[in-house]
Specification:
The complex is a heterotetramer, with two copies of chain A (388 residues) and two copies of chain B (144 residues). Chain A is of the alpha/beta class and 388 residues long. Chain A is 44% helix and 13% strand. Chain A is built from 16 helices and twelve strands. In chain A, the strands form three sheets. A seven-stranded mixed β-sheet of chain A has the order 2-8-7-6-5-3-4, sandwiched between helices. In chain A, strands 9-10-12 form a three-stranded antiparallel β-sheet. In chain A, β6, α8 and β7 form a beta-alpha-beta unit. In chain A, α3 runs parallel beside α10 and α12 packs across α15. Chain A is globular and about 70 Å long. With 144 residues, chain B is α+β, with helices and mostly antiparallel strands. Chain B is 50% helix and 19% strand. In chain B, strands 1-2-3 form a three-stranded antiparallel β-sheet. In chain B, α1 packs across α2 and α2 packs across α5. The chains are: A alpha/beta (388), B alpha+beta (144). At the A-C interface, α1, α3, α4, α5 and α10 of A face α1, α3, α4, α5 and α10 of C. Bound molecules: pyridoxal-5'-phosphate (2 copies). The site of one pyridoxal-5'-phosphate has 14 residues of chain C, from α4.
Chain lengths: 388, 144, 388, 144
């Protein structure tokens, strides 16, 4: 059966050219970049080339790029690193109620260790108000962390505006840009951020490698303690093949970023339009226009997300949901609830995130299959009856 | 690589794909209504009882794959069973009949058991009512 | 030029069969194991198979295996995880003065955060005395961390004895087994450990993946906060290809562990014997017999390690040194100093760590080349003169 | 992949492979002895001076590749220079002459500069001594 993958926000396939670039570093040029000998130095050279490429993608100097094991580590590093280094100055952190778990759970950990965290609300579209950030700042505030775009509903946050506010208040500013880098233009100076998280596997690079961008002069303690790697900012043997792959993926992403963003935007809007037309009692989640080019998130009334997902999967369509049933907790997506959705609506959410391999054909397939699936599930829904 | 990977057993998927006994029973002898929207699972179970035997069962469920499959399974299992037998169906038995459930989905089988218990209790309550009404009638008849 | 790689303690080449096992998980079966759809579930199945294989290699139940980004993360996780979870009980940690930086630097971090750390001394061979461990335990001791074998001098520590002591005192016991797993038999029950770190790239698996073995009932907080991966013990998208590669490498390692250990031990002893015969003023570092099958560490008087290394590299021989010059600090190896070597001797150390590709021929090459290199450097050494 | 990867520039490696002026000078006019074993670098620099010009220089070094290369380079650079010119050779000039050094190795060039200064100072001290001895002699001659 042909499968249509529409879950690019979860992970993307590693591009064949990326794999090809990685391969020599497993078996031939397998050295440890910390080694002085030729094997070590050729590996070292390779990661420095990759660093340049990733730096170029976000408009940063190469020295401000620190490789990590992924976006989760980058977020942990940014938050714990700043918190532990600056607790002499203050113990207050500002973030939002729609951050990725890598930020939220790290904040909760810090709360248990004496820090105070403000979780700012968002509006019905998932937008944070810069003015709320301004008002939340106290003289104890040491860090503001607001994601660049929501992995769930795709809404793009006003980072530049918040960056100005953070700059004026001289508070460190971190953004989780895992969902934006490689998909929309990202420039650390334009955004005015001190710290920025990214992850290779969201932009057709390999899993297990990310970056924390750290602006020069930002004071944070290491998260991973040990050897002298990454100019003593992140210990652990460099994951050479993955870093090289990240470099290649960054290079490829930069090449056709705007063309691909345009193409996906039009597919996205076609899918949204089609779904709203063909299914009744369906709602778009997130902002209609200030959203990622590849994100479609809808709530379908009276039916539950996982059961839609499984039915779609049976027909070869791979998507995602914010329903609790897909996680080990029983609560539905904190993001959808923060947008003001009812628990039922949150449980009835479906996310389609498009990518390079998707074409018009895939969109049409979803538009053909989903209405059938919804009809089938609504026929067994006890909620529909009570609605009537 | 294995050929088939799935969150669920084949049996679960079979019931999920072709759920048995979907719907409502008109004038049911017992209805169970359990779960709540916050947790994402709502089950309604309808039973028809004749001579203390469950002769028909139908369900309506809002929930995940496991919720739908266990709902389907419970309706299959109760049909033909006496009220007492039905009350002995445990969530484990349901999960086993489905060749197992993932640990995080065991609560669905619990919910199905509760739906069944609740439907049976509803039946017992109603039939007691009917019984006592009948008794009352009889009594009043007698007194007449 | 043919190169002879003798730095397997730094990293090993990924075996071709391992790379082959990984490849499908980059481009075809690229899913995120957290996804419900078929792509997700096939990835999930793959990591669970790999978990079984790694578990088998150390005699552990699969549920007690938690994948990390490497040995450094495993060490950070074990130490910080136990420390932060058990500070209500006590704040004292016992370790040794010869641990890897991933343990030592993590301990220093914890010291800055209010924990007290005892760094036990070692004897001239690098052995920790179990009795020293016993004596160091107080009612505030929450963790003992002693490495299984030294990455520098190869000495194998009496972990089983220390495990008994830790067990009797009901103190959590961690061992860094990064240099032993896959090279000598390791069984978590025989060792009596609660926590054990390993790293795939030291046993012919890929870089960027490791494991923390966590015995059931061990109380520790997560190190990487975020999503629900690894039964909520370690957040972050699973590095599927690397985990699959680790599984394959574990399987291969287990297959011919004892045969390879025997082969390397004889090459090792040949190299040691040859070096001591052909070069005067040379000393073996570490224990002569209670040492890793693949480790040769010597100090060559009057000459500095990096300059030997570079000369060897020019002739295609890749080795390592404990000299400061190879790191960004100016101090020589803390391990060699802990063994009682003078700074000069520590600076004059050379480490050869053998592996699968090495043969008699490579050993002979070292025995032919190194004496020449030493002679050349001694001719320009100001220390030799003052010694005469 | 690039063809050549190395910690050091080709120039450094060239000097490391074929260090110039290795050895000691018998009866040197100045000797510089710097560094210590704890840091892993020890340099000895010997100079021969004629008419305030350094006519020969030799070194002995215990140290890393950069230490050996900068030692070799400093002996090359001072030969034929006047004492005053020699004192103007900075560590940066040494590093530049070697087409650069890795940041963590810059201290080796500092050490080489110090070795040179120390050798020159040794020469100046000795020659002052000789001078003053000569002066003394002259003076005593006069007074005779
Ligand atoms: C917004 C965001 N932040 C962080 C992460 C975590 O990144 P990683 O999967 O590389 O750990 C993700 C993806 O899972 C994400 O979407
Ligand atoms: C004993 C020991 N512990 C920990 C590590 C760190 O492991 P990794 O390189 O996977 O971060 C190493 C190797 O560098 C090691 O030899």
């Amino acid at each position: 059966m042909r499968r249509i993958y529409l879950d690019h926000a979860a992970t993307t396939p590693t591009q064949p050219e990326v794999v090809k670039a990685m391969l020599p570093y497993f078996t031939n040029a397998f050295g440890n970049p910390s080694s002085i000998h030729s094997y070590g130095q050729e590996a070292k050279g390779a990661i420095e080339e990759a660093r340049d490429k990733v730096a170029a993608l976000i408009g940063a100097p190469s020295e401000e790029i620190v490789f990590t094991s992924g976006g989760t580590e980058a977020d942990n590093f940014a938050l714990k690193g700043v918190a532990f280094a600056n607790e002499g100055k203050g113990n207050h952190i500002i973030t939002t109620s729609i951050e990725h778990h890598a930020v939220i759970e790290t904040c909760k950990f810090l709360e248990r260790r004496g820090f105070r965290v403000t979780y700012l609300p968002v509006d019905a579209y998932g937008l944070v108000a810069p003015d709320d950030v301004r008002k939340a700042i106290t003289d104890k505030t040491i860090l503001i962390s607001v994601m660049h775009a929501s992995n769930e509903v795709g809404t793009i946050e006003p980072i530049t505006e918040i960056g100005k506010i953070a700059g004026e208040a001289s508070v460190y500013f971190h953004t989780d840009a895992v969902q934006t880098v490689g998909h929309i233009p990202v420039n650390v100076d334009d955004l005015g951020v001190d710290l920025l998280s990214l992850s290779a596997h969201k932009l057709y690079g390999p899993k297990g490698v990310g970056v924390l961008y750290i602006r020069k002069g930002t004071w944070l303690v290491p998260f991973m303690h040990g050897g002298d790697q990454e100019r003593r900012r992140r210990a652990g043997t460099d994951n050479v093949p993955a870093i090289v792959g990240f470099g290649k993926a960054a290079e490829l992403a930069q090449k056709d970023l705007s063309k691909e963003a345009e193409r996906l935007t039009s597919l996205r809007d076609e899918l949204i339009k089609g779904l709203l037309e063909r299914i009744d009692h369906i709602h778009l989640n997130g902002h209609p226009t200030i959203r990622l080019p590849n994100n479609v998130n809808v709530s379908v009334d009276f039916v539950e997300g996982e059961s839609m997902l499984l039915n779609l999967d049976l027909e070869g369509i791979c998507a995602s949901t914010g329903s609790a049933c897909s996680s080990s907790s029983l609560e539905p997506s904190h993001v959808l609830l923060a947008l003001g959705l009812s628990p039922e609506q949150a449980h009835g959410s479906l996310r389609f995130t498009l990518g390079r391999e998707n074409t018009e054909e895939g969109i049409e397939c979803v538009l053909e299959v989903l209405p059938r699936v919804v009809a089938k599930l609504r026929a067994m829904s006890p909620l529909l009856k009570s609605h009537r | 690589m294995r050929d088939v990977w799935s969150l669920y057993s084949e049996k679960v998927m079979e019931h999920f794909k072709n759920p048995r006994n979907v719907g409502e029973i008109e004038n049911p002898d017992g209805v169970g209504h359990v779960g709540n929207p916050v947790c994402g699972d709502i089950m309604e179970l309808y039973i028809k009882v004749k001579d203390s035997t469950i002769v028909d069962a139908k369900f309506k469920t809002f929930g995940c794959g496991a919720a739908i499959a266990t709902s389907s399974m419970v309706t299959e299992m109760v049909k033909g069973k006496s009220i007492d037998e039905a009350l002995e169906i445990s969530n484990r038995a349901l999960a086993e009949a489905l060749d197992g459930l993932p640990p995080i989905k065991m609560h669905c089988s619990v919910l199905a058991e509760e739906a069944l218990k609740s439907a049976v209790e509803d039946y017992l309550r109603k039939s007691k009512h009917v019984l006592s009404e009948a008794k009352e009638k009889k009594g009043s008849n007698k007194s007449e």
